[in-house]
């Protein structure tokens, strides 16, 4: 048994680059607009002396002295605008942009964007968006057609001129060059929180016009991510029919109107993600290659998904902040036409449990191939006995991961607000085993984050150990840490419960012995 504290870190890597700037007009100037080039200002006497000393040590411009294949490998791992800025400072690297096989151009690649503390103005993003269009056009039109573009990803703001420039450049490249995976990530010049209903409709129409003007570019896309758009009833199906090679579609705050029904059919689509939106229901009619579905916070009071023909579906992720009035999902009905799920992730956002424990007779036909289950953001202190229904109904289950966490920065904390909108207080899910003596032969690993050595959790772990006769590993971790929660105001911090996780070797040994004793 492994009782290990979970560690979380955010280490920023840094490197030193010594580059020089050529006095000549270089070909790279055609790619990177003046406003986004690195600024090389006057050098103080002390700084100049240090550079000269470094040069005397044979240490100057180390990056550009690397072999071209290694340089290309490095440059293809970063944003292409960052790569161009690096190339702009070195004579040796000026020819490299035309040799890149992977291109990632982003309107978020503002000079200084690696500084997480910096706040950017909308004008800076739009200026970089113009640069993305400019660079896309220039770099795709000057490349040798003999060099395959293995991956092309462009993240841009939906504006008429820049979008058309990008779309037509990509369409031309697809017609004249070998382009592998191509991806558009399209956002809007207004954030979701400040968009009016008219804004959503405007952005939807603007995107439809973009698709109509550049159908050849969309015909070659393999991935598409859209944000903040409201479409007509048939717009999304029409977009999908244009994107014939599409393998991944993500819709964030997009829909076809409040309480609309989206029907999805596509021959190649393997991944579908929906964040928010106002769909009443998403019907997956015919998706022969669909493998992964993720639905985050649906607004419907009924089943959010209907599965038609999706024979390869293996991973399902559902996330929901549920209130009292919303329906509890019955997996036997939701997955009635799907028996291929092997990976199930349910995120409860520290609120109401919105899945109903059902009897094995109903559930086993749809969960017979289930191997991995992740139950995330369960309220701290809740009785976990109800989760045993998964063990009873999923004979192939190998791993079960549970996270107990009152994640205050994603929860509604105002009492009046919670009452008004029907948020639940902590209520244990009622459940009793249908076969108290059942044995599970395949469950090998149980992981719990947010473990506290109380009777509730110890009793639950004991129960799992009794039923899972081939258990190989139980891994118990302290609750997860969130920086935003730590920075919360004092009123929220007062809600935090001090962790009693066994941190010392002596206390861990005591907990292990207690579990071993309970299981005998």
Automatic annotation (TrEMBL):
What region holds the F-box domain? Answer: 60-107
Give the InterPro entries listed for this entry.
Answer: F-box-like_dom_sf (IPR036047), F-box_dom (IPR001810), F-box_plant (IPR044997), LRR_At1g61320_AtMIF1 (IPR055357), LRR_dom_sf (IPR032675)
* Pfam families, alphabetized: F-box, LRR_At1g61320_AtMIF1
Protein name, please?
F-box domain-containing protein
Native source species: Triticum turgidum subsp. durum
